[in-house]
Amino acid sequence: MNTNQKIILIIGGAIIVLMLLFPHWSHEAGGTVIADGYGFLLDPPSYRPGMYASYDSSLDVSRLLLQWCAVGVATVVGFLVAKTKEGE
Fold this sequence. Notes:
Blueprint: H1 3-21, E1 24-29, E2 32-38, E3 46-47, E4 55-56, E5 58-59, H2 61-81
Antiparallel strand pairs: 1-2, 1-5, 3-4
């Protein structure tokens, strides 16, 4: 493994950790899923203006897994592209 491959793996891992720390949140209202945006893992967004119009956000796990897969594929492709031949 060369230096460029190590850098690609570190960057890919750091992006995945940041995605875990700041995931996408959503809530359901009337059968429709509404996106609440990104927020810190331990402080999910919530809305409480009145007794009947309040909601708590939930982690959008499917989006998080899709993002992780995309970063994983991009990291593997970058890792393979950065591979050098023996003797270079």
